[in-house]
């Protein structure tokens, strides 16, 4: 008589927990390279990844009922035009197109396991109403779509100017400005968060390329700093 083997499938919640525990940021493999590339001093520059930020894709026509519903749920108004950003409710909203915006959470997750994106997208999306009476608009979780690099230091602008043709002069590109542009042929969102601090948001599939490009573009300033210190 053949032996009967009983197989018990893991509970769905357990599977989700295991998957979350294995979560890895798109540029995790570059952490050591980022640390080694840091340059100190007057021509200093540093780069780091800010992984797992909650990002919500928002589609709504400004001034519409859908826009008003989303603004109320987010606690921030939609940006009014190209390059503009608005803040509120724990989010910064970046203008992407006439009726397209990206809401980026202000706070970083406490761990890689934490994933607020789906719940936040559902919460904000519910503000549009029920089927049949729903206001025009859409909210989707895009947290896994892009990662975030933060480039900072006195030489951060010079690094970006090597790969971006847009005019980034401080008179034109002020703190709080965010644009869709191209860095070394890769589409990215570029957001100036401080006088010498920028966030670069590439799609996850381009994270390794963009991260390595930034490290390579920073090398010049390490050499310049060593020469200034009398190192030959």
Automatic annotation (TrEMBL):
<dbReference type="Pfam" id="PF04268">
    <property type="entry name" value="SoxG"/>
</dbReference>
<protein>
    <submittedName>
        <fullName>Sarcosine oxidase subunit gamma family protein</fullName>
    </submittedName>
</protein>
<dbReference type="InterPro" id="IPR007375">
    <property type="entry name" value="SoxG"/>
</dbReference>
<dbReference type="InterPro" id="IPR027266">
    <property type="entry name" value="TrmE/GcvT-like"/>
</dbReference>
């Amino acid at each position: 008589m053949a032996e009967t083997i009983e197989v018990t499938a893991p509970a769905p919640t357990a599977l989700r927990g295991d998957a979350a525990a294995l979560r890895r940021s798109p540029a995790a493999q570059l952490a050591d390279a980022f640390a080694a590339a840091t340059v100190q001093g007057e021509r200093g520059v540093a780069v780091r990844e800010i992984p797992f930020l909650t990002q919500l894709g928002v589609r709504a026509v400004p001034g519409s009922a859908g826009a008003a519903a989303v603004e109320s749920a987010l606690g921030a108004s939609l940006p009014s035009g190209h390059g503009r950003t608005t803040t509120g409710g724990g989010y910064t909203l970046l203008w992407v197109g006439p009726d397209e915006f990206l809401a980026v959470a202000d706070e970083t997750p406490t761990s890689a396991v934490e994933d607020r994106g789906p719940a936040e997208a559902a919460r904000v999306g519910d503000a549009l109403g029920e089927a049949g009476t729903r206001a025009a608009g859409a909210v989707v979780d895009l947290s896994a779509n892009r990662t975030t690099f933060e480039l900072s230091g006195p030489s951060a602008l010079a690094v970006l100017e090597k790969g971006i043709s847009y005019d980034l002069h401080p008179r034109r590109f002020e703190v709080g400005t965010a644009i869709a542009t191209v860095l070394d042929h890769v589409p990215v969102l570029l957001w100036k968060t401080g006088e010498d601090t920028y966030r670069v948001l590439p799609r996850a599939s381009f994270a390794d390329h963009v991260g390595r490009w930034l490290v390579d573009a920073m090398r010049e300033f390490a050499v310049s700093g060593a020469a200034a210190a009398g190192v030959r």
